[in-house]
Design brief:
Length: 315
């Protein structure tokens, strides 16, 4: 049985891997999405992460596609009681204004609840910071949603250390909800945005961290090792800087793979899960085979020496 981890100071306990829902209704159709979701739960997973803006970037999409698919799966599977649902507000414009305007937060939450077909969102993120809205006003809007039973816990995504600290200070001063979770970009080869002040802040304040891009858009799976590999997917163009400067990380991961029998994806996620402040990394899958591989990361425990070698290689 998967060992659950407490998400910061909240009453949420989650498995050490969060399923990213950005692909649902986009690169994973409804049938595939249902199969991936079933495999995630069967493999011991508990938290599913999505956002109202998923997948507005795709031709013909307007946002909400991922939430709709997840809602249909929840209804068809009857597994609402087995999972926690995290979603976000702040990137999809619509009723009530833009970003984190209080009226937008209220309207977006209702729209997400409708698409998901649930009464309460377990973890509701401010998807990005909004310096045009006073932080106290956004926190008051989240407070009203908590009081109404529409959300349980509030989190922040893509916040700087300074802005997260000011929000925490305001919450304390005005008895408003704290951001109890953070969703930053963080992985073995992208560490500057999180390590240091932001990570220290999360550890000090017991903020549960669920980082995204845990596999660095596929680079940390070993898929891209030379310029000849760049054509393997639409993401290939982003991999040039990695190939030019980060192949040493793959070499270190290959060594750990030989020692453990684990795949590179599992090693990347296990390294993340072992970092200070991290509750669970986020990863997405477009097939059951991928999902089964990723859930295998939850059972992988790297030695201190293996973690140190990986950390040094990715520095």
């Amino acid at each position: 049985m998967t060992e659950l981890r407490r998400l910061g100071a909240t009453d949420l306990s989650i498995a050490p891997l969060v399923l990213g829902g950005n692909v649902f209704g986009w690169t994973a159709d409804k049938t595939t999405s249902f199969a991936v979701l079933d495999a995630f739960v069967a493999g011991g997973g508990t938290m599913i992460d999505t956002a109202d803006v998923y997948s507005a970037w795709a031709p013909g999409h307007k946002g909400g596609e991922s939430e709709t698919v997840i809602g249909e799966w929840l209804k068809a599977s009857g597994k609402r009681g087995a999972v926690q649902i995290a979603t976000k507000v702040g990137m999809l414009p619509g009723e009530g204004g833009a970003k984190l305007a209080p009226a937008r937060i209220a309207a977006a939450c209702d729209a997400s609840l409708t698409r998901l077909g649930i009464d309460t969102i377990d973890l509701y993120f401010a998807h990005q910071d909004d310096e045009d809205v006073p932080q106290e006003a956004a926190l008051e809007a989240f407070s009203k949603l908590i009081d109404a039973g529409k959300i349980r816990v509030v989190g922040a995504s893509n916040f700087s250390a300074a802005r997260l600290k000011s929000a925490l200070d305001l919450a304390t001063a005005h008895r408003l909800p704290h951001y109890h979770a953070l969703q930053p970009e963080y992985n073995l080869v992208s560490r500057r945005k999180f390590e240091g002040e932001l990570q220290d802040l999360c550890v000090t304040h017991n903020i549960g961290v669920v980082p995204y891009y845990g596999l660095a858009s596929g680079f940390l799976t070993g898929k891209y090792r030379s310029n000849a590999d760049l054509s393997k997917s639409v993401r290939g163009g982003r991999m040039q800087p990695m190939i030019d400067g980060k192949l040493g990380v793959l070499a270190a991961m290959d060594s750990v793979a030989e020692e453990t029998g684990a795949t590179l994806a599992q090693i990347a996620l296990a390294w993340l899960a072992a970092q200070p402040g991290i509750t669970a990394p986020i990863a997405s899958a477009t097939s059951v085979a991928q999902m089964d591989e990723l859930t295998g990361a939850m059972a992988l425990s790297l030695t201190a020496d293996q973690r140190d070698r990986l950390t040094l290689a990715g520095a």
